[in-house]
Design brief:
The complex is a heterodimer of chains A (1031) and B (271). Chain A has 1031 residues and is of the alpha+beta class. Chain A contains 32 helices and 43 strands. Chain B starts with a strand and ends with a helix. The longest helix of chain B has 20 residues. In chain B, the strands form two sheets. Chain B has a nine-stranded mixed beta sheet. Chain B has a two-stranded antiparallel sheet with strand order 5-8. The chains are: A alpha+beta (1031), B alpha/beta (271).
Amino acid sequence: MTRASASTKAAKSTSGKNDVQLLCLAVVPQAGFSTKTGSVSFPLYWVQQAGSDRGAESDPKLIEALEQILVDPLQERLLQATPEGRQAWTDDWSKQSFRWWCERQFQPGVTDNLAHTVKEALSLKGVQGDYQIASGTGFLLSGKGANPLDTLKSVEQFSRYRYFHPLTDCFKVHDLASKKTVSDQFLSFPAVHLPTPKPAQTVALNLDDKKLEALSRQRLLALSLSEMQAIRKYFEQAKVKKARKAKKLPEWPTDVELEIIAQTWSEHCKHKIFNATITHTDLAAPGAPQTEQIKSLYKSYIQAATRKLAPERPDLLSVFEDNSGVVSWDDDWAVCFKVETHNSPSALEPYGGALTGILGVNRDILGTGLGAKPIFNTDVFCFAYPSEDLPDRPKLLPAETILNGVRKGVEDGGNKSGIPTVNGAIYFHPGYRAKPLVFCGTGGILPRSINGVSAIQKHTSVKDIIVMAGGRVGKDGVHGATFSSESLHEGSPVSAVQIGDPFTQKRLLDFTIEARDAGLITGITDNGAGGLSSSVGEMARITNGATIELNCVPLKYPGLSDWEIVISESQERMTISTNNFEELQKLASKHNVEVSAIGTFDDSGSFAVTRDGAPVALLDLQFLHDGLPDLELESHWQPIEIVPEVGPPPRELSPILISLLSHQNVCSRESVIRQYDHEVQGMSVIKPLMGPFQQAPCDAAVQKPRFDQDAGLVISNGLCPQLSRFDTHLMAVCAVDEAVRNAICVGADPATIAILDNFCWPDPVASARNPDGKYKLGQLVRACKGLFEAAVTYKAPLISGKDSMKNDFDDGVLRLSIPPTLLVSLIARLPNIGNAVSMEFKGSGDLIYLLAAGKLGLAGSQYEELQGWRSDWLPSLDLAKADALYRRVFHAIRSGWVRSCHDLSEGGLGVALAECVIGSKLGARIDADRVLAAAGIPAGTDANAVALNKRIDLALFAEGPGRLVVSVDPAHQRSWETLFEGYDCYKLGVVEQMGRLRVLSAVGKPVLDMTADGLAFAWKPALPFDRERQE
Amino acid sequence: MVRPRALVVCGDGINCDAETASALELAGFDSVRSHVTDLLESPAELAEAKLLVIPGGFSFGDEIASCKVLALKIKEKVSDLLHQFVDNGNLVIGICNGFQMLVQMGLLPSSERGAPPVVSLTKNSGGKFMNRWVELVVDHNAPCRFFDLFDTIQLPVRHGEGRLALGAAESEQTIEAVKRNAALRYKEDVNGSFDRIAALSNATGNVLGLMPHPEAFVRWTQHPNWYRERQNNKGEKPEKQDKTAKNSPPPPDIPHGLAILQNAAKMLTVD
């Protein structure tokens, strides 16, 4: 089906001399295929030798080596055949009750890690010759079952996204029952065939506005009219013309130059919306609407918060400057942290999207200062419920395909790189049908100085060599940021989607750290969005100039245009500046890492690209980085109107608690957590799941970054998109609070908190297809204000951030948008890991307290959703009070009074208590009256005239920020209660040996009574990952 | 006292080298990390060492099969030297990916030259990678001394391919030999391993391969229940100790992984 005709031709040509030879291999079990499940899968390989008149199949040394490499001699055997000879395989399989034979292989040019490994293994075995390898998978299906597969089409449909992804894979189904399966229908070698590229072209810009806009669209530049005009103006300047003439460059830009500008000016690189001048109108302001002008949200709220806090935070070493934010750890070491998003790639090809997301943010850390070592990953996913699938919109992948692919991508990205995935979140909301959000975060550690030179800064100097290290350049990721889904489906397959190569990157990582310590690196950055144009263009600012020569850039395969080489986003590459290329190269060869000297840094004031020494691009650095015209936007805000509809209290509370515990936003994440290595590097102190049964879901991670010190590094996240539809200001405040509160729970020192912001928004620029753009921008303004207030009050400086502003789906008919989402990620210090606290109850007799610094709400709660109610009763937070409260909790934890501490989030107090019981299998006796008193529900009545503040269901399940449930050693009751005098601190009950959660009325009547096992049973099994699949 | 030298292999996708080297230092070794390339180019480094450790990780991305290509790379170049190292009575420990390598290299379950392969470490029966702490039962009749002092130990497993499988045609005698060399068994079945085997040694007990990670439990705060385990071992809550107090003395107050590595150091210094 999705095959290019070229490879069929290759298969047919095997009989000819001096032509490509193809050998086909399958690795099958010695014991034969199991027919138990109706489907089996096994590895396939295609091996091709170029330029030989001998068939690859006739080289005994090759066959012997392949057999040793590919086969487990105890369990497997190798089938080998010529392309035609595979007929014998299918003849055999057709006799084994299989109906369908399917082959999967990668599309030409897609990263094939397995094949690379086989190739390296062949060279280790001393096999000579120019062998090309492709790997794939074979599937045999019986076609029987509840939904029988009886046509080619039904098999293809069944297999799509299950066995193959059309963007990265070729897949072919053969009917074993048909006599017509002939060998030339089998898959052949997926060779890349590209025409010889044209040399750099001149793109004239003396066009009218309409044509300028059309040019931007056709070339996928994603530049606006005013930006195109600014570029035209630059090239019209007399001094530019003169300089170009001197270098024999055309008057108008080359395609290389235009692409460099477009990448540098992309929303992704320049954050145009966050830097825009916004006229914001608050339509809900008391009295009359109020209008204000905001010059750059970024400067006014994000940078401003940090600037305000900086005088008291000498530990902030590098903020908003480098690839990640850097804070001091001690006199010798610093830690850094960055969170990125990879939403669009994950929407199209979830596995590759998430994998390259992780590897990309790892490189941000590696590219910080002179190179930091990644020490943890933290990942947050926002998905639609699988029940929200829209089968009539084929361009939207099924939710289950997305979440399984993303999960697997993060597993491979973290585990294979040896970086523990220590913390994260999975959040479901129907709005993420438009696009899944995949936040990939990484923290690192780096020495503060190397050989007396600061390792926090880059020291690139004039005459330093520009080195590209790691992978090679291919068509993958050309226009990564601007690719529309249309062109992804119909464009050239080799440039479609990227799959990362964690092994190559792990080698690159080991190499970089050793080179850094040897003093061989003067500056380093990663090749992410915009490729070389961005990495070299950025580093060139340090010396004020750089030149690269395209002949020196190693390519994966021939056929790339100059502009493609410059902007390709091929993975696993770092750009390094060095003053000792020779030594760097020696070290690289030890690590099997490819390094290439591709140019020199200078102080010419421009970024130049040459081909064979002749310039193909020459751009003034100041224009390139500062020539972008300002964006002006308008926004407004007004709250939505809600007609409340809250039903009566339920007769029984236990079914409610069971439903909440088994809800996909609450239930155990164990099935996902277990598949991530969260302990590699040996730093773990508080893991995702703790306690005697490894079932206690911890609020934050604690790592011990230095083996020789007792201080811990706390990592947490906060995310509250369920509140966005009511008020993004509240949403942002709650996101900061959640991140901070999670960290406080494990014992973090509030004075050491540093946070990252990560905005994922629906397009906030109004247009015909986006009529409510001004409102979405108004929501962004309010969120920034909330973020600023919370950060400043909590004295939590922002050290780095990211925004992704186009999270919409639009196929021309249907437009969907995500809920405005702000992820706040946090690092903090814990003075002594021996004081770290996990969330499960520890021992009977411990006293259970609720601490609160805000008001509960029903609107946006899991309980509201479960009951199908509509409430306008919103939660709120007293930021200053919460700040003071958390500092006291830190004191109590450090003093050793606290035995467990857990934050209240989805499902409120009821779920939080249940989790403390599940994690320990101890019990709790809770006083219902105290719960009601602690809830502080405002006066008012429901539809049945029942006073809201008498409803225990609301007190148990409503949600609000600023709340913690803490168990305290009774020996320290007095100190604890004294510490919290004047605060909302309620003694709710006591931990019991008997594994039951009991909420009792004043007369001892159970309002709720469930066993720990019953709670655990409800909480455990509900995530829709890796469901058993039946044909 | 001279600390015995431990050589920890790194590079090519090995992940656990840093913490393994650090754990060995804690256990009394003088540990050095050596990149695979350096080891192959100047194998004399090995002669200085008394213990060779192949740590866990994803060598070559674990493509084809776990540790297949790294084993092949080392086997092609220094197979003889390794056998000599073992024959001289030095210690070799392969952890997780390293265990897979020792099996692929033909050093386990028998380290005799030319011994045919009899076991594989293959995909977990659950089909998934798994990171969790497990309870392991020590077989004191097995030939190795790494687990002395304990009847049961707790360590994390972190693997996708840790199921020990025998070839279909193995003789009763071979099967018995494998069982005899099984130093650790999972208390409960976690990955479908034959006979629940988690660790194998050779007949002389100086080559050990184990799927669980000893280097991941060298301080109490690495245990998922450290808050209480540490108290238990300090004797603050004696009721827990009843279980282990039947025949043997209570386990020492020391993280189990560290104890294993210290035993290794003891084996070398006593000899």
